[in-house]
Amino acid sequence: MNANPGAESPLLLVTGARGGIGRAVVAAALTQGWRVAAVSRRSVDGDAVADDRQLDIVADVSTADGARDAFAAAVEHFGEAPSRLCHAAGNVRLGAIERCTEDQWRQVMAANLDSAFYTLQAYGKARGDAPGGACVLFSSVAARMGTPSHAAVAAAKAGVEGLVRALAADWAPRGWRVNGIALGLTETPMTEGFTRGDRARQGVTVQYPLMRLGRAAETADWAMRLLDADGWTTGQIVSLDGGFSAVRPLVKAV
To answer: Is 91 exposed, middle or buried, given 0-12, 13-18 or 19+ CB atoms closer than 10 A?
Structure first.
């Protein structure tokens, strides 16, 4: 266990910490003086951090053992369980339901829904009855409205939204808050394939009333707001999608 001169600062555990959103949340938290346990399924040789402010953890949170191990590593290093959780692990698979194999379906469920369930479970067990705390998870506009070729990820993210509301109810007596952010297409390494080439990018962008895609840094800003200790918001899903789910864009004939 580390001697920790920053023990009074919030301790945040971030899953999917090497992805575009997770990386942005880690950076935002460190900038605000928080301590961060950054969890990812993969490691990069020579790039791991283990000091008083940050601990990089390799764990697969789509399994109960992996999620438990991630929190155990954070507790061992920092001497306490994380009071904040940002679950940014997940993946996206697009395509017609007829072409989705059983393995692909299981992968989407494991990466998005299973990982959310096991991470929340591990958070609850690690914290016990400690007062206060906040969790943020990520959903998708596809879970809120019908969008073509999103059957698998829409089902998974709808499950994530159900977990947000259920755990917000379960944990409110402890003062723990649980919220979600439903994202539109946000520019990260995982979504690069959807906007490769000018024509593809224009075809996607024109669907958004604000005529641009989301940015990882602004998503991280919203996550940090919802993780604030003094918040009075719980059980909510915030749509961060440039108006996609609420506004019909004006499409001009060419």
So the answer is: middle
Class of domain 11-240: alpha beta
Most distant pair of Cα atoms in the chain: their distance: 65
Distance CA 135, CA 85 (A): 5
What's the one-letter identity of residue 155?
Answer: A
Provide the residue ranges of all domains of the chain, joining segments of one domain with +. Answer: 11-240
Positive or negative, the CA dihedral 182, 183, 188, 190 is positive
Q: Does 153 or 146 have the greater pLDDT score?
A: 153
- Hey, how many other C-beta atoms are within 10 angstroms of the C-beta on 78? 22
Region of poorest pLDDT, from 64-73, 180-189, 218-227: 180-189
Rounded Cα distance between 169 and 177, Å, is 9
Encode pLDDT of 105-143 as tens digits: 999 999 999 999 999 999 999 999 999 899 999 999 998
Q: Compute CA distances 102 → 109, 112, 153, whole Å.
A: 11, 16, 14
Can you give the three-state secondary structure of 182-236, one letter per residue?
A: EECCEECHHHHHHHCCHHHHHHHHCCCCCCCCEEHHHHHHHHHHHCCCCCCCCCC
In the chain, % of residues over pLDDT 70: 90
